[in-house]
Amino acid sequence: GAVVSQHPSWVICKSGTSVKIECRSLDFQATTMFWYRQFPKQSLMLMATSNEGSKATYEQGVEKDKFLINHASLTLSTLTVTSAHPEDSSFYICSATMYGSSNQPQHFGDGTRLSIL
Amino acid sequence: QQQVKQSPQSLIVQKGGISIINCAYENTAFDYFPWYQQFPGKGPALLIAIRPDVSEKKEGRFTISFNKSAKQFSLHIMDSQPGDSATYFCAASRPGGTSYGKLTFGQGTILTVHP
User: What is the pLDDT, as a whole number, of residue A46?
Assistant: First the structure.
């Protein structure tokens, strides 16, 4: 099946640091990637949608300057949390899908647990 | 109108029993309904999905039942096993426009299967 790799799986850093998370589709070309945030025992909250070669579309309430998304190739998207603070601590998950129809399944990475001290 | 409501919030089942999780939606434009399984510290994994032109889909021990008129769909896990203990999410998406391919997730159900 389709494989999405997310790196790193866990990161701890000091407040004010910027953190980059990578999401790679290993065996298919992902025209669209999604970034989610998940708090403990809660559902996934979509943060943004990124299409290869174009600017990301952010959901309402998500700060574009805080969460920088780049989708430079069909196999790689990155999320950079800039000047991270303790309230940014969360589980960040990416997913990838192929263009075609809304019925193309999303394949998820294993998430990145971000802890800001 | 974009919400997908999932119930129950948590479910305890004995080994060998049937686990049933229900979801309801409002937006009739939704045309794709997947179920995801998530273990702690992992990303969701696609279990099974259905389109509204069929009323039931079965894959192994997992079955989706879909009621278009009631705008409801459910996941049935037959012969539930302790290894099925996880959080299950239903989701829905619709074609076209700015919502292309976006999934709307239910709130999740924590399933515990006792040996």
Answer: 93
